[in-house]
Specification:
two-stranded antiparallel sheet; 8-stranded mixed β-sheet; 2 domains; globular; Rossmann fold
Length: 377
């Protein structure tokens, strides 16, 4: 395969481990922890050009480039990370790590519990977004970076970026926060709960102890299908599928696949099972449910009052999972505190997934914002 122009090229996943326990928000002392991460570009001598990219629920440390010349697809945000791109690797040292609770190299439910020599499974501690960020801070310290030039992410990644700015105000110079919210709505929590129930009621879940047997594939696939619907917009689904039939000229009055959208969702579910751990899905969605900056800090204004970052908030017109008004209201709150804030709502038809699919306006806005932050340094 020919590596595309503008790609960071062949990259390697690295691992950092620490033995000392960290105190989780639930009060548990947990460790040791291993963190999987990738880096792109070069860290300058002053170590002040580092950008931490934070991934969403189903993401991982592989944000850009290829692991080998045989890879069919690049990293999940390859369109945004690379020479001359939004996160320009000719200027910045970009880091992406798999977060705590994940299943792509960082310690999570599928990792071996050193006390039992078996996978943690459901014995893994319930975690929060703040816990994820605490582990990421360990990695950044290990890399010798005192201050991040930027923390950036979409969806759950955006929640982490906000938590970084709040939890470590002296360590974050700017934050790019995309397609996210300061707390999940009841509707979003409900979607997560249905997905979790699909998993735990799968006969193969076996109370989370399935690693030596059949995985709860049907439950995890169904959870992914449900969630994936929320990532799309009605407009994009209509344009992509409409009511078009799949490999037939008329409906056949049975419960096999009739419509293209049915085939698409089943494919999404199956491919997700091939690359993700069901227990990780349970713990990560719970962490999202618990994320509530209003409740945790008393108010949104109190949450952000001590932050020192310059903020860019990006929302998308057709994102009904995290509607634009949520980040718009957050931007207004920060403006009332005298913080430096830029807010943009981008007209895009792709729904919540726009942060991965909108290539016309989003990269330019991010690139110009980061240049502005550089000039002010």
């Amino acid at each position: 395969m020919k590596i595309q122009t503008g790609s960071v090229g062949i990259v390697e996943t690295k691992y950092f481990s620490f033995e000392e326990k960290i105190r989780l928000e639930n009060g548990i002392e947990f460790g040791p922890v291993t963190v999987a991460y990738e880096t792109y570009g070069k860290l300058n001598r002053a170590k002040d050009n580092a950008i931490l990219v934070l991934h969403a629920l189903s993401g991982d440390a592989h944000a850009a480039g290829y692991h080998s010349s045989e890879d069919k697809k690049p990293g999940w945000w390859d369109t945004a990370i690379g020479p001359g791109k939004a996160f320009d690797t000719d200027r910045y040292f970009v880091i992406c790590s798999n977060f705590l609770g994940g299943c792509k190299g960082t310690t999570g439910p599928s990792s071996i519990n050193p006390d039992t020599n078996r996978p943690y499974g459901i014995e893994f501690p319930v975690i929060t977004v703040g816990d994820m960020v605490k582990v990421q801070k360990k990695l950044i310290d290990h890399l010798g970076i005192e201050t991040l030039f930027c923390a950036a992410g979409g969806s759950l990644g955006g929640m982490q970026a906000m938590q970084w700015a709040i939890q470590y105000p002296e360590a974050v110079q700017s934050a790019v926060i995309i397609a996210t919210t300061t707390r999940l709505s009841a509707q979003n929590i409900a979607f997560n709960e249905v997905g979790r129930n699909a998993i735990v009621f799968d006969p193969n879940w076996n109370n989370g102890d399935y690693y030596n047997g059949e995985v709860p594939a049907r439950g995890l696939a169904l959870a992914r299908m449900i969630a994936h619907i929320t990532y799309l917009s009605e407009e994009s689904m209509h344009k992509k599928f409409g009511r078009r039939l799949q490999d037939k000229t008329k409906i056949d009055f049975n419960f096999d696949i009739n419509f293209q959208v049915e085939s698409y969702l089943r494919h999404q579910g199956k491919s997700f099972v091939d690359r993700f751990d069901a227990n990780s899905y349970l713990f990560i969605t719970k962490a999202m449910d618990y994320f509530d900056l209003h409740q945790k800090y008393g108010s949104l204004a109190h949450a952000f009052k001590d932050t020192n970052s310059k903020f860019l908030f990006l929302s998308f017109s057709t994102d009904w999972l995290f509607p634009p008004n949520e980040l718009k209201d957050t931007a207004r709150t920060l403006m009332s505190l005298g913080k430096e804030v830029t807010y943009c709502n981008i007209d895009a038809p792709y729904g919540h997934d726009s942060f991965l699919l909108e290539f016309e306006h989003q990269p330019k806005i991010i690139k110009n914002f980061l240049k502005g932050v550089s000039k002010e340094c």
